[in-house]
Amino acid sequence: LHLARSFARDKKRTLLIGMDLRKPRLDKLLASFLPEGTERKGVSNVLVGDCKLADVIIPVKQFGMDVALAGPVPPNPNELLSSGSLKEILEEAQQKYDLVIIDTAPILAVSDTLIIVSHQVPLLLTTRLFHVTRPVLRSLRDRLAQVNISPAGLIANDVDAPKNAYNYYSDSY
Hints:
Elements: H1 2-9, E1 14-19, H2 26-29, H3 43-48, H4 53-56, E2 57-60, E3 65-68, H5 77-82, H6 85-96, E4 99-104, H7 112-117, E5 124-128, H8 134-146, E6 153-157, H9 167-171
Parallel strand pairs: 1-3, 1-4, 5-6
Antiparallel strand pairs: 2-3
């Protein structure tokens, strides 16, 4: 969410898509920013063919970006993501937006993210610093290499930088 907000602040047309179809959280994080009476249809509805992507996109004016929530939790997330509809959703989003950020299920827990990444979507891993061990990260690296996926980068959250970490720059001027 914060990454998408950062790009939106830079005047990039940004869409944040909730594709954690197992335990969606974006709707809870954005609850106070969503318009009253917003119907809770989402990406899962688009994947089953109930509606189109444009029908589930919600402008979040406070952040200057759009969001498509995950929608109702389906009984078969893997099957839905493996359908041909996902490719259409991604192509449509990429045509209309400068940047599309997809929030997925944890990659170590389920294979949903691997299905999404197989559509030539760059993978940017996000983890809480010191919550995932090096052996686990190495295992993930090896697992991704087995399916020819190379992460575009890694974001470490919960980094506790001292307040004066950059103070030495001011001493040289």
